Amino acid sequence: MLRWSRWGRNDDGSAALEFITVGVIFLVPLVYLVITLGAIQEHLLGAEAAARHTARIIGQADDAATAAANSDALLANVIVEYGMDASRVDVSVSCRPAGIDCPSAGATVIVTVRTAVSLPLVPPIFGLDAAASIPLHAEAAQKVSRLWGSG
To answer: Where would you tag: which of 13, 43, 73, 116 has the fewest CB atoms within 10 A of its CB?
Structure first.
């Protein structure tokens, strides 16, 4: 009986095991948080770049057809560059003041890009990836020249 009581009070070597256990318990969520924040930041930068550059291209184009073609090509390049899912990117273009053709001389072009980021390591079964996604939104404005469309 004496041997068991000494064994129960012996703490030799248990500190290393406790540090490893606690380290793993804290490290796994921390690594997941870093991966998730990296994915969110990548998509947010992509949405912001798409909005800003699309507004700039539309504002500096010579006519509406050139603006549409160049902005579509730019949007496709940004989606590929930032690893975004093209089916989850929604772009809308509007102009201010309201009631004028978009784009037109002297107007302000406002480009809005909406997308969603699925959380890493969430499986795409039963729609879990769509349910566990974070919506992102970016908006940019560009003033169109008063001489726009005059050649």
So the answer is: 13
Closest alpha carbon to 54 in 42, 39, 71: 71
Neighbours of 61 (CB within 10 A): 20
**Residue corresponding to tokens 């729609």:** 127
Which of 7-16, 23-32, 127-136 has the least mean pLDDT? 7-16
pLDDT digits (tens, 9 = 90+) for 69-123: 999 999 999 999 999 989 999 999 998 888 788 888 888 999 999 999 989 888 8
Helices (DSSP H) in 1-151: which residue ranges? 2-9, 14-60, 64-81, 128-131
In angstroms, rounded to a whole number, what is the distance separating the alpha carbons of residues 3 and 10? 11
Residue among 39, 52, 54, 50 nearest 116 (CA): 39
